[in-house]
Design goal:
Number of helices: 2
CATH class: Alpha Beta
CATH topology: Translation Initiation Factor IF3
Structural class: alpha+beta
Shape: globular
CATH architecture: 2-Layer Sandwich
Strand content: 25-35%
Strand order of the largest sheet: 1-3-2
Helix content: 25-40%
Number of strands: 3
Order of helices and strands: HEHEE
């Protein structure tokens, strides 16, 4: 379900735009970056952030 929300947010952005996503739990931590890469987006960083993980993406169309 988490990547569905991320994908909806990506659809609102222009090519080259950045998106930051907070991920909580093991499953989203593995699946969201993988799914974003599979959809052609660039994972810029994935870092611990205040008890969750901060994923930074660059949108590619």
């Amino acid at each position: 379900m988490t990547y569905v929300r991320v994908k909806l947010a990506i659809e609102e952005l222009d090519d080259g735009a950045g998106l930051e996503v907070l991920l909580k739990g093991d499953e989203p931590l593995k699946n969201v970056p993988r799914s974003a890469r599979e959809d052609g987006h660039e994972v810029l960083s994935l870092e611990p952030h205040e008890g969750v993980h901060l994923l930074t993406l660059k949108v590619h169309r």
